[in-house]
Amino acid sequence: MSEEIEIAGVKVPRADWEATPASIRALVLVLSERLKQQDERLSQLEERLNQTSQNSSKPPSSDGFSKPSDGQKKHKNRPPPGQSRSSPRQARKLKPSDECDQVHDVMPSTCADCGAPLSGHDSHPHRHQEIELPPMEPMVIEYRLHQLSCGVCGQITRAALPPGVSPLGYGERLSAFVTLLSGPYRHSYRQVCALMADLFSVRLSRGSVGRLRNEMSDALSIPVAAAKDYVHTHPVLHSDETSFPQGNRDGRNPQRTKGRLWVLVTPWVSFFEVVLSRSQKTAKGLIGESYGGIVSSDRYSAYNWIALDQRQVCWAHLKRDLTAMTERMGVSHEIGKALLRRQRRLFRWWHQLKNNTLSREQFIRQVTQLRQGFKTTLEEAASLPIDPHEKSPLAKTVRTCRRLLKVEPALWTFVTIGNVEPTNNAAERALRPAVIWRKTSFGAQAQRGSQFVARLLTVTASLKAQGRDMLDFLAHACLAARTGKEPPSLIPQDQR
User: Fold this and answer.
1) Residue 298: how many CA atoms within 13 Å on its side-chain side?
2) Running DSSP on this structure, what letter comes out for residue 246?
């Protein structure tokens, strides 16, 4: 039996190949290389087409209405047989009767069955409460500034506005309300003007809306700066960033550099800032090179300056990469399946730790063996030979595993250090309102607009986490700025 050799993935007798004219052999090799390149390109296109929020960094909103993959839970929200698909009606919590503005006792006059007259007393009547809005009319306060003539020199002097009264002609609560509409509620200038006119019969120009926004942004500068200082003192920081376009209306972005909205998240206070950079230098400036706590983030290279024992790499991002591996063919599929199986086991133990059915000591002991198996699989995958410029699905898998090995210690920080989460979901959740803001506004036209967005996001995210009233805070900040008094703080009362 003659010796066989492999040509273009097909085994042929060596004698037949050597008997083939040289020109034909060259053509076969060229066509086989071209076919290999086309296969790689096709694999790339198929993988890109199949990308969802489950196997990539794409947001869930990009998934559209396509059918879920086999790996997704198709019937996650399906009710048991015989039960309604609609959620049970949530009863509204009633206010105590003594806190109601009006209380009316309604007595039945006749029996609903036979019509006989009724009398007596019900010590436990059924309570029904109706919530109503009072007539919404603005309160107009007039300040009559008298001017008097000096009897000595004849100079005429007009009285100044009292402290806290704005020359813009709008009170602090109205300014706060306009800021909420234009900021967190993402109304355009035109919509704010229309809404104020419809609800309160207050006629605002778009220029007035802009001036009130700028005034509020300036009033929030001190509380926001204090919030930035506070997050740097917290032992655990969640960091993330997303694109946020900034125009050049003020001449401060002549190169049209793409803006990035960065966020630093702690349980009670979050800090946002728009920077025209996604660089490592920016990350160092925001987090602080001397920061001694734990930074939770994705695997973006801007965080590589942080020591691995001070990082927690996000497992949610990792899960997407592992899921993408399992959707490839051959060796990639097997590697992804092995790693994803260990990830699922890890999170099952993590949830047991969180609900106190597993102690920290037991959790550490179980994770130790799992970690070794996870690392071994990564090392085996990383050792597979690939061409430096190869773009095949296998090459993607190998490169992902090699990158993971570089940050492998940072995958497990949460195992031994309390208050550290395995994912960076806190930062991603904090960015969602900003992403919606970006979609509706298309970013900011100038640096002042970016500053307004970042400051309002800092305020609203922090106040929401603390359960504090946003309108009251903004009104207080505005009045403090107008009177030169100390502004309200975003720091929780017990931590100042």
Assistant:
1) 17
2) B
Distance of CA 95 to the CA centre of its chain: 34
Residue 127 in tokens: 């309570």
CA–CA gap between residue 426 and residue 298 (Å, rounded): 12
Indicate the average pLDDT of the chain: 87
DSSP result, 342-361? HHHHHHHHHHHHHTTSS-HH
Are 141 and 171 in contact by the 8 Å Cβ rule? The answer is: yes
DSSP tag of 115:
-
pLDDT in tens, 250-284: 888 888 888 999 999 999 999 999 999 999 999 99
236 within 8 A of 266, measured Cβ to Cβ:
yes
Alpha carbon separation from 215 to 203, 247, 454 (Å, rounded): 19, 21, 15
First to last CA, the chain: 87
CA-to-CA distance for 35 and 38, rounded, in angstroms? 5
- Element holding 369 (H helix, E strand): helix 360-382
pLDDT score for 61: 47
368, pLDDT greater than 80: yes
Q: In DSSP terms, which residues pair with 320 in a beta bridge? A: none
Residue with tokens 């009710």, as numbered in its chain: 79
> How many CB atoms neighbour CB 480 within 10 A?
18
CA nearest to 308, candidates 409, 219, 380: 409
Distances (CA, A) of 302 to 234, 391, 396: 21, 24, 21
Distances in Å between the Cα of 411 and the Cα atoms of 94, 296, 298, 318, 393 are 47, 10, 10, 9, 24
pTM check: above 0.70: yes
- Tell me, what's the pLDDT at 71? 47
Burial per residue of 35-68, b for 16 or more beta-carbon CB atoms within 10 angstroms, e otherwise: eeeeebeebeeebeeebbebbbeeeeeeeeeeee
Query: DSSP labels for 65-110?
Result: TPPPPTTS-TTTTPPPTTS-SSPPPPPPPPPPGGGSS--------B
Give one word for 74, left, alpha or beta, with left for phi > 0 and alpha for psi -120 to 50: alpha
Residue 482 pLDDT greater than 90, yes or no: yes
Strands (E), 416-470: none
Both tokens of 90, joined, read: 């949530």
Identify the CA nearest to 271 among candidates 280, 281, 261, 279.
Answer: 261
Radius of gyration of the chain (CA): 32
> How does pLDDT run across 409-450, given as a tens digit for each residue?
999 999 999 899 999 999 999 999 999 988 888 888 889 999
Cβ 465 vs Cβ 256: under 8 Å: no
Tokens of 382: 């990383």
- CA-to-CA dists, residue 367 to 286, 294, 296, 422, angstroms: 33, 20, 20, 13
Q: How far is CA 180 from CA 133, 233, 475, in A?
A: 19, 29, 11
Which residue in 207, 181, 213, 206 sits closest to 195, CA to CA?
A: 181
